[in-house]
Amino acid sequence: MERADIAFEVNGAAVSVSVPPVRRLSQVLRDELQLTGTKVGCDAGDCGACTVLVDGNPVCACLMPAATVSGAAVTTVEGLANGRLSALQASFLEHGAAQCGICTPGLLVAATALLERNPTPSEAETQDALGGVLCRCTGYRKIVAAVMGASRHMNGIDLRLPEAGRAVGASPIRLDGMPKVTGGEKFGGDSFPADALSVLVIRSPHYHARFSFGDLGAWTKAHPGIAGVFTAADIPGKNCFGVIGPFADQPALAEDFVRLRGEAVALVAGEREAILDLDLTDFPITWTELPPMLQPCEAKAEGAALIHSHRPANLLTSGYVERGDPEAALAGAAARVSGAIETSFVEHAYIEPEAGYAYMDGDTLVVVACTQAPYMDRDETAKVLGLAVDKVRIVPTATGGGFGSKLDVSLQPLIGLVAMKTGRPAALAYTRNESMMSTTKRHPAEMKASIGADAEGRITGMVFEGDFNTGAYASWGPTVANRVPVHASGPYLTPNYRATGHAIHTNGPIAGAFRGFGVPQATIMQETLYDELAGKLGMDRLEFRLRNCLRDGCETVTGQRLESGVGIGECLEQLKPHWARALADAEAFNAAHAASKRGVGIASCWYGCGNTSLPNPSTIKVGISPSGEVILHQGAVDIGQGSNTVITQICADALGLPLDRFKLKSADTAITPDAGKTSASRQTFVTGKAAEKAGRALREKILRFANVSEQATIALDGASISIREGDAARRIDLAALKADADGFVFVAEETYDPPTLPLDARGQGKPYAVYGYGAQIAELEVDLKLGTVKLIKITAAHDVGKAINPVLVEGQIEGGIAQGIGMALMEEYIPGRTENLHDYLIPTIGDVPPVEHILVEVPDPEGPFGAKGLGEHVLIPTAPAILNAIRHATGVLVTKVPATPSRILAAIREKEARR
């Protein structure tokens, strides 16, 4: 493509580039000028991550041809600081408004334009100005607060960290927060080597098809700059991967036939400019389309073709929990309700598509990419590429959101293959369409259940059954099938119970892990029936839940006795005044309005932290160098939830040294011990416990060396440690001590694996060591003519055991609620139709109402300083609370989620037709 010299100004400096005039400004900034603070999430103007200022006006750089900025002044996020943080950047740090950080540059730039013309904007003005920038992590509320509060930070921000022994319970800024607000953070696509080959993936346009290649060699020769085409025949190892070994079934590159739309069949590698200009319409591949099965009912039908020959009836696996005699309990119940609910595929919609690069370091393959599970990536990549595990190194970049989907390997073995075959670095960044087409989704569920209670309103029995569409490959389907039956009772005493979860193969998208592993779907079924049952009994809906909730000493449906730490009762108690106020407000509103009605809904949740009845260890190493630095090897990948900060806070207080003396060495399979995957709300609990143990062990080593008791205090003074016990004082000269191979003079490495027990054939056992609890109230209005829903407020009470960092806890609550809103009201992934962020709707800044968070702290003896996990819990009650509020407003329950306006109207009309 012909080039032109284009001169303009960037962040106050004159620049000139020689690029094709139609090259996107976002590409020019990132690739030519290395200003990677401008992020690319969609290349369609849908996400706003690439927002920059052109002559002071916010624009999407991905939509601007480079020629249009000739002579203009461009400001990127890197230009906001001017040697020191702007007031807005400081406010973002203080409010915790940046979580993963991938959308933060776009938000900061858009907000800067707003504040330059209006230094004290209202909430409505702020939402209007930032409405074009999507965030998937924060729930937007802290972003709004940060923008509106920016004027208070004209003199900067106090960056002092808590003193020794005061980190836990404090809310220091994120230890990794500074690069998130300056544009310095490096995500998967931000640091490709200049000499890297660019990689394109050839994917199936069909749900089910055979395919064959033509003359790939001739095609390669006919396209200058193309280094090679690689297929399954080039894979040197076992062409099969999967997150759960016994169920692994997915090829890195398909052989002869594909099982789903978007499946990878070949790789094209070439020089960057050649790949940018490449037209793949002549790629030599022939497709023969085959009949697909997209619904579980088709896949389960007698005589249905098998998607995997070794899985009869297209059943991946089932989970089962049984206790007592549920049929007899239901038959003898004073009140009984039954129902069915169907949910949809939900897309993770993180703003950072998958990206990374690979290169050979001697005989070791190094993969630098976004991920939630570096050690799992290492093992799977090694297997596919036929390498010893110690010859693969995974170096995680910053990860721009994950929510479960980045637990599965995606591009790692693909770029690794190209790097191995060519000897050159290989880089790949998925397009938005490619990411949404090929990666995992939340399982659609078809569920039915019955619940019974006695005349006093106590649950006597429950039966639940759910079919979960797991798609073409296993991914986390076994985990969903097994976790759902454990949780489908909700956090309630249920003496007679049976629950079954089936993971069914189809030719649909692969369904995997997504914030809750199937529990959000099952909770919709259970909590909507609880409302109906309370109505039959004539009981207040909150009081009904309080009467039945688990308490200390209760046994769960798996027979696990919960001796202490059960906080659901306290969560519901804390909501009582809010419930009474909301009901009174709704009654008053409804008396005065006919066209719209207000409703109030409530729902509870519980969630087991970590793997279900399986080993789940984390290891943390912490040491002190001769110069007095405290080095924390923190291998728990921070995808925005804050583990870099929270785990360091825990270790600091356990060790007894101040937070500002810690230096992080983040996840890297060659350097940091395995802290396990970032999933299942396990990092604060499991890795946090390992950090607590490591901190205490290091402290004990120092005290023993100084021959003092546990009551002594320690302090770092340059390259020495001062120790005081009463009037006695000692000093250890660190520089005089011999360092180990890692450069430490004192070091401790500790592992924690939660104590669990296997589930037997009836699902009885101890699946989790720690559970978290929560309950939420949703207040909303429904337009009875349009079927639209306006959210008024959500009040969320969550038992976190101990809030290690309250601001980060609040951010998790708000972010989870935003995703729950999307699941309830708008998010429905339809293959081939909603594979972009224009047609697939996620909540925007105007869709999330005020959120009031109530932090309940009922400590669990297993958790570090009593803490429990939180990340997934906060999403679980939101959708059922909203559905219950819609029913309170309209009298109808929407049984296909999301509850779109058309479905709400259809339910209202059906109700009216029955009258």
Tell me what you see in this structure.
Helices cover 28% and strands 23% of the residues. By secondary structure, the protein is of the alpha+beta class. The chain has a seven-stranded mixed beta sheet. It has a five-stranded mixed beta sheet with strand order 2-1-5-3-4, sandwiched between helices. Strands 12-22-21-20-13 form a five-stranded mixed beta sheet. Helix 2 (87-95) runs antiparallel to helix 5. The protein is globular and about 80 Å long.
Short description:
Helix content is 28%, strand content 23%.
Write the layout of secondary structure elements.
Layout: E1 4-10, E2 13-19, H1 25-32, E3 51-54, E4 57-60, E5 73-75, H2 87-95, H3 104-117, H4 123-130, H5 141-148, H6 177-182, E6 197-203, E7 209-213, H7 216-221, E8 226-230, E9 257-258, E10 264-270, H8 272-276, E11 285-289, H9 296-300, E12 315-323, H10 326-331, E13 335-342, E14 346-347, E15 355-361, E16 364-369, H11 374-385, E17 392-396, H12 412-422, E18 426-429, H13 432-438, E19 441-442, E20 445-453, E21 459-471, H14 477-487, E22 497-505, H15 519-537, H16 541-548, H17 568-592, E23 596-608, E24 618-624, E25 630-634, H18 643-655, E26 662-666, H19 683-706, E27 713-717, E28 720-725, E29 728-733, E30 746-752, E31 771-783, E32 789-799, H20 806-825, E33 851-856, H21 878-890, H22 901-914
Parallel strand pairs: 1-5, 6-18, 16-17, 21-22, 25-26, 32-33
Antiparallel strand pairs: 1-2, 3-4, 3-5, 6-10, 7-9, 7-11, 8-10, 12-22, 13-20, 14-19, 15-16, 15-18, 20-21, 23-31, 24-25, 24-30, 27-28, 28-29, 31-32
